[in-house]
Design goal:
The protein is built from 9 helices and 12 strands. It is α+β, with helices and mostly antiparallel strands and 316 residues long. It is globular and about 55 Å long.
Length: 316
């Protein structure tokens, strides 16, 4: 896969409230900056102050409590959608990777249902409160990013509201054991692209996430702070954009003696995703057919690959 870059950094974009005021010159400039980052890198870094240091600490404290539950309890988290439930002890997953999904995570009902499953006797109000608060705040960041890309392409007025109305959010809590814990295994997550529309990743103090450059020549490391989030385009966004947006391969490589905890807020869409007519022209002929987002996810689960699944599933 080439040599990891020690110099290149991922783009960091300032999404301050001043730059989010619709119609201003700074807003339009930031919209174009967001779009170009997703086209050239498939992702960018943002410092998002809506998640306070206290919420950050609570998020990972509650995550550790969850992963400390017995495996048979965590395995009760099942779903008819691939990769929405508990993932661990699987032959296709590195042995140091364990993750748990919370469906409809921006709703109190969705998180309460998950909480009651994990702690049926006592419940866990603190866990529920933390996860709902976190998911709702980060989902607002997802909406900002989506709106800015749609505005940059000139399709927001026609298409944005319907996309927001059909969006659902999966909050995935992830633990990677340290290499010392499990036979010196360093790969925590094999190279892959996400099947989401947008993924927003956040982590504790242990680094390890790497993004493959668009030319496939080198890996770019992501060194996080408590306020930094990685906004990443998924295969569904690539298809919706008629191939303009890049869905980047990424992986986790572990080192040191500490486990790594991270979260991903994944956006998915109900119904059929249409490719906007405005994104089809002589320079960009139609590359994708209308598609079911969950159909794309199920297709990948039946034939997993590190490459984008969009062209195989719904390419013209």
């Amino acid at each position: 896969m080439g040599v990891k870059s020690l110099v290149q950094k991922l783009p960091t974009i300032n999404l301050s409230m001043e730059n989010l005021k619709s119609g201003t010159s700074s807003y339009l400039a930031t919209c174009n900056e967001v779009r170009r980052a997703l086209e050239d890198y498939g992702c960018f870094v943002v410092h998002y102050e809506e998640v306070s240091p206290e919420l950050h600490e609570s998020l990972f404290s509650e995550s550790k409590e969850l992963f400390d539950l017995p495996t048979d309890v965590k395995m009760k988290n099942i779903s008819d959608k691939p990769y929405f439930g508990y993932v661990g002890n699987h032959p296709l997953i590195p042995p140091n990777h364990e993750s748990i999904g919370i469906s409809n995570s921006t709703t109190l009902e969705g998180v309460q249902s998950f909480t009651n499953l994990m702690w049926p006797s006592t419940g866990n109000d603190k866990f529920c409160e933390t996860m709902v608060s976190y998911a709702r705040r980060v989902s607002e960041l997802e909406k900002y990013v989506k709106r800015m890309v749609f505005d940059s392409y000139g399709v927001a007025e026609k298409h944005y509201d319907s996309h927001v109305d059909s969006t659902t959010f999966l909050l995935r809590l992830i633990k990677y054991k340290s290499p010392e814990e499990i036979n010196k295994v360093e790969v925590g997550c094999d190279p892959h692209t996400d099947k989401t529309f947008i993924t927003i990743l956040h982590q504790d103090e242990v680094n390890g996430l790497e993004i493959l450059s668009k030319d496939g020549d080198h890996w770019i490391g992501f060194e996080a702070s408590p306020s930094s989030f990685l906004v990443m385009a998924g295969d569904a966004f690539l298809a919706w954009s008629n191939g303009r947006i890049h869905s980047a391969q990424h992986r986790v490589v572990m080192s040191g003696t500490k486990p790594r905890y991270s979260t991903g807020l994944f956006s998915y869409h109900e119904g059929v995703i249409e490719i906007p007519d405005e994104l089809i022209d002589q320079q960009h002929p139609l590359q994708f057919k209308p598609f079911s987002h969950y159909g794309l996810l199920k297709y990948f689960s039946s034939a997993p690959t590190s490459e984008s699944s969009s062209k195989a599933y719904c390419g013209v």
